[in-house]
Amino acid sequence: MGFTIGAGSSILTGFRVAGRGNLTIGKQSVVNYGCRFDNRNPIRLGNCVSVSYGSVILTKGHDIDAADFRTVGAGVEIADYVWLCALSVLQPGVSVGRGAVVLTGSVVTTDVPEFHVVGGNPAAFVRERSQALEYSPNYHAWVPLFG
Question: Which member of 22, 102, 136, 140 has the lowest number of beta carbons within 10 Å of its beta carbon?
Fold first, then answer.
C-alpha cells in the first residue's frame, strides 16, 4: 500500500483508507477497529499513538464558498503519545501536539497544543494532561493472528 509503519505498530481490522501512500505511522502505535483515514494528503502519526475505534482523519473536503465546489485540504500531523479516543474526527490541516488527548466523539477543527485534553464539537480545551508519559501501546490479539 506504500505506507510507512514503524516497528511494533498495529492496524486492526475494518481500517479503511482513501488510497495508497500518504500514511506514516511511528513505532508502537495502534490504529484500532473501524478507523477511516482519508489519506489523499499526508497523515503522519508519531510513536506510541493510540487511535481508538471508529476514529476518522480527514485531509480533504470541498470549498463551500467556491462556485465550482472544488476540493481543498491539507495533511494531518499527530505527535508522539497522542490518544484519539473512540469516534474522534480530525479535520484537514490540524496538528495534535505531543501527549494530547482528544475525548470520545470530539471534532477537532483547530490545532491541539501539547498535553492538552480537548473534547466536544468543536473540540475545546478541558484540562492539561500529565507530562510523565512512558507507555508503549501494544495490541495483543485475543486469538493468534499468525502461526
Answer: 140
Is 116 known to be catalytic? no
- In this prediction, residue 13 carries a pLDDT of 87
> Which stretches of the chain drop beneath a pLDDT of 50?
143-147
Amino acid identity, position 82: V
Segment 73-85, tens digit of pLDDT: 999 999 999 999 9
- Locate cell 480530525: which residue? 90
- Where are any strands of DSSP class E within 43-123? 43-45, 50-51, 56-57, 60-62, 71-73, 76-78, 83-84, 89-90, 95-96, 101-102, 107-108, 116-119
Domain boundaries, the chain: 4-128
Catalytic residue among 16, 20, 62, 127: 62
The domain over range 4-128 is classified in CATH as 2.160.10.10 = yes
Query: Which grid cell is 66?
Result: 467556491
64 and 83 Cβ atoms separated by less than 8 Å: no
Residue at 37: amino acid letter: F
Instruction: State if pTM tops 0.70.
Output: yes
